[in-house]
Amino acid sequence: MDKIKCHLILHSKMGHLNQLYSGFIELSKKGLIDLTIENKVHTKEYILEAIINNKFRVVYDAFDEGWKYSSDISINDADYYFKRSYDSSIHKRISEKIKPLGLNYNVYSSNGNVFGKKEILLNYIKKIIKNKKSNFYFEDFECEPNITNNPKICFLTRLWDPDAYEVENEKVRLERIEINEFRANCIRACKKEFGESFIGGVEDSEFARKNYPDCIVGDKSITDRYNFMNIVKSSDICIATTGLHKSIGWKFGEYIAASRAIVTEKLHYEIPGEFKSGINYLEFSSAYELVNSINKLMKDNVFRYKMMQNNHDYYVKYVRPDKLVMNTLKQVIQESEEKYESKS
After folding, report:
1. How many angstroms separate the CA atoms of 181 and 71, rounded?
2. N or C end of the chain: smaller count of CB under 10 Å?
3. Does residue 19 come out as left (phi exceeding 0), alpha (psi in the -120 to 50 range) or beta?
4. What is the pLDDT of residues 290-327, one digit of tens each?
5. In sequence order, which residues have a C-beta less than 8 Å from that of residue 147 and are 6 or more positions away?
6. 277 Cβ partners below 8 Å, 6+ apart?
7. pLDDT for 86-122, tens place per residue?
8. Is the pTM of this model over 0.70?
C-alpha cells in the first residue's frame, strides 16, 4: 500500500479523541502516512474529521452514546463515519456509512502531539506543577500475559451523583442510581468472597461518603492514575461494569492493553474483529454471577492465561492507537477500490 495522505481537521481537545490523535501521530512517525493538520477546535464534541488521499471524508465519533452524532458534520456529508458506540441493529438502518470504531481509552503518543509544541510544553508544565505524570503513552498501559499461583482481582471505580448539574433528564438520573447500586453490590460481594486478593472500591467523593462509605477505597493513593495503572498490570483479573449511556468504559480498553483476564457486564455495543464471551471475557449480570466467574478464572490457571493471551492478541490487532487508526484507513481505501472495480 502506498503512503496514505491524511489531512486531519481538529474539532475538539476532548480526551475521548486522544487515542485517535495518537494513532495518526504514530503512523506518521513510522512513515506510513503523510500527515497534515488543520486546527478548527471550537467545540466539546468528541469528533475528529479526516480527509483521506484528498478524496474521502472520514468522521471519527467517540461519543459514549450510541444515539448521539456530530452536529458539526452530517453523516450524509461523510464518506465513512466510524462510531465508538456502534450497534449494527440501529446504525445499519440509519446509514451504511456508519462503521464500528472500537474500544476507547485515554492515551497519548510519545512521538508528538497533534496540537503542536505549545501543547507539549503546556503538558510538561502541568507535570512539574502537579509533580506527577498525567499524560500516559500506550507503552505505559502494556503488559505481557502471565501466570501466577495467587491471582489478584482489581475493581477500582467511581460513583455518579444522580443530582449533579450535568444530569440531562430523569432517565439519566435513574441510570446513575442503578449504576451506583450495582457497583456497590459488586464491591461488597468481592470483599466478602476474596478478602485480601481483591483490590477494589470506589473513589472518595462527597457523594460516596454520604451514600456508600463502606465501599470507599481505604488507601486513596491507589486511585491516583499512575498507581491505578500499576495495580491493573499487577492484577490478573479485572472487573468492568457498564458505563454511562450503556457505553463500554475506558477501563475496558486499558484492561485489554494490559492483557488482563476480564469479567464484565454485558457489552451493549459492537467492536471490530473476533471478540467473544468465554474467549476474551466472562459475562455477569449480578454480584452472584460475578463471584462465580472470578472463581472460575482463579481456579483455572490455563484458562486465565489463555484469556490474557487472547486479549493481548486483540490489543495488538485492534486497540493499539496506530492499529485502530490504520484499520480504518485500510477499510476506507479497500472498500473504495472494490466499489470502483465493481463499476468498471
Report:
1. 34
2. C
3. alpha
4. 999 999 999 999 999 999 999 999 999 999 999 999 99
5. 301, 304, 305
6. 283
7. 999 999 999 999 999 999 999 999 999 999 877 666 6
8. yes
81: closest CA among 103, 102, 96, 93?
96
Q: Which of 68, 3, 131, 79 is nearest to 332 (CA)?
A: 79
Q: What is the pLDDT of residue 2?
A: 84
Q: 288 φ, ψ to 5°?
A: -65, -45
Most confident residue range from 20-29, 40-49, 130-139, 219-228: 20-29
CA dihedral 332, 96, 257, 8 (to 10 degrees): 50
CB neighbours of 127 closer than 8 A, spacing ≥ 6?
Answer: 133, 134, 135
Q: Which residue has the cell 452536529?
A: 71
Largest CA distance in the chain: 68
Handedness of CA 89, 95, 96, 102 (dihedral sign): negative
User: Three-state SS across 13-29?
Assistant: CCHHHHHHHHHHHHHHH
Contact (CB, 8 A) for 120 and 167: no
Q: Which residues fall within 8 angstroms of residue 286, CB to CB, at 6 or more apart?
A: none
What's the grid cell of residue 74?
Answer: 452530517
Q: Specify the pairing of strand 47-52 against strand 56-61.
A: antiparallel
CB atoms within 10 A of CB 333: 17
26, three cell numbers: 504514530
201: left (phi over 0), alpha (psi -120 to 50) or beta: left
